[in-house]
Prior knowledge:
disordered N terminus; elongated; 205 residues; mainly alpha
Amino acid sequence: MQLRRHILTLPLACATLWALLVVGCTAPPTTSTSPSTRVSPTAASFSPTDIAWIQLMIPMEERAQRLIDLAPARKASPRLVALAAKIEPLLRSDLQSLQRLLRASGVPDTRPHEGHDMPGMVSLTTLKDAASATGTRFDRIFVNALHDHLTHVGMLSNNEQTHGRASAATQLAATLAKASTRQLGWLDDARPAQAAAPDSSVTTQ
C-alpha cells in the first residue's frame, strides 16, 4: 500500500517540485542593455522554466556520474558494470550539452542546488553508502538510485518540453526524456534478481 501511494503521488510531487524551481530557485537572465551586458537574441529566448530545468539537470547528471563511476571498483555484478560503462559516456555527453545550454542562456553558473538532495537526485548519503558497499549491497543501492534518477529525468524533461520556451532546451529535453526511457529498459535487463528495486514498478509517463 505504501509503495502504491508512492507511485500515485510521484507525478504530483514532480509537478510541485517543478513549480517551486521556476518560482524560487532561478535567477532570471539579465536584461540590462549596457554594451557589456546586452542579452543576445539566443540568450533572450530562454525562459525561467528553461533555466530552472537546466540548473537542476546539471547537478542531477553530475551526481549520477559519480554513482556510475563507483561500479567497477565496488565489485558490482558484471552486468551492472557493463551497464555503467555503457551509460557513462552518454551521461558525460548530456552534461556537456546542458553546460553549453547554460552558457548560451547568459545566466551565470551560480549552482543554486549545490549540496541539495532534490527528488530524483542521487543523494550525498546514497553516494557515501555506495562508496562503502560491495557486491550485492552495492548492486541494490546502484539499481535503486539509478532507477529513481532516470525516472525523474524523464518526468522533468517531459515537463520542460511542455512548458519550456527555448527550442534548444526543449529539443535537448526531448532527447533526455527518450534516453531515460531507453536506459530504464537497459537497467531492467541488467538488474540482478537479488538487487530488484522496491520501486521497480514506477515508470516514466
